[in-house]
Amino acid sequence: MKKPPRTIFFVQALILLSLAAQPVAAELPYDPLAFSPAFTPQILDLTVNDLGRKRDIPIRVYLPSDTFPSPMVFFSHGLGGSREGSAYLGQHWAARGYVVVYVQHPGSDTSVWQKKPVIECMAAMKRAANPQNFLLRVKDIHVVLDQLESWNASRDSALVGRLDPKRVGMSGHSFGALTTQAVSG
After folding, report:
1. Residue 120: which CATH number?
2. Which among 14, 30, 74, 184 would be 20 to 30 A from 97, CA to CA?
3. Number of structural domains in the chain
């Protein structure tokens, strides 16, 4: 019987070694917190003009990669915060397919403490934590939601057809959590 040439033996050995070196594709468990690090949401900074109250409401919108109508999650910042805070939540929720709307509430936002001496900041924050600002915040959410519905229907808007106004959730931090509870009933 003839011996196989050495080259065939070496090729077979290399194939077996390369197959053995391949990692076994294990099914990873679902992780609700994981998302692709390559995802970067489109971010829009917009202003809602509430003509009835003569109030401009800054918002930041994080858009998911999908362009079909997506559910919305509102976020209301804490006392002294802004639409720029807690960005990691907006990025995460957008990566999960939500349109995320951060509402900045004038009168209880960063304007309360910015450009003030440090010694005055705490007193200014305490003054801003009042029932009037609380009611303004609640109304801000309704006004912003109405404006978003209008932009969703407008061909001139970057949000046209992107929002599902029948599926809306809300979250908030501190004073924003109180706002969320009041809006939710």
Report:
1. 3.40.50.1820
2. 184
3. 1
- 111 falls within a domain: yes
- Over range 116-138, report the average pLDDT: 96
CA gap 98, 100 in Å, rounded: 6
Q: Which of 83, 76, 81, 77 is nearest to 114 (CA)?
A: 81
> Half-sphere exposure of residue 49, counting CA atoms within 13 Å on the CB side?
1
**Adjacent-strand bridge partners of 164:** 71
In a domain, 84, yes or no: yes
- The C-alpha atoms of residue 65 and residue 83 are separated, in whole angstroms, by 21
The single residue listed with the structure tokens 């809300």 is 170
As a whole number of angstroms, the distance between CA 72 and CA 106 comes to: 22
In a domain, 162, yes or no: yes
pLDDT tens for residues 93-115?
Answer: 999 999 999 999 999 999 999 99
Give backbone dihedrals phi and psi of 159, rounded to 5 degrees, phi first: -100, 5
Say how far apart CA 93 and CA 140 lie, in whole Å.
22
8 lies in some domain:
no
What is the pTM for the complete model shown? 0.82
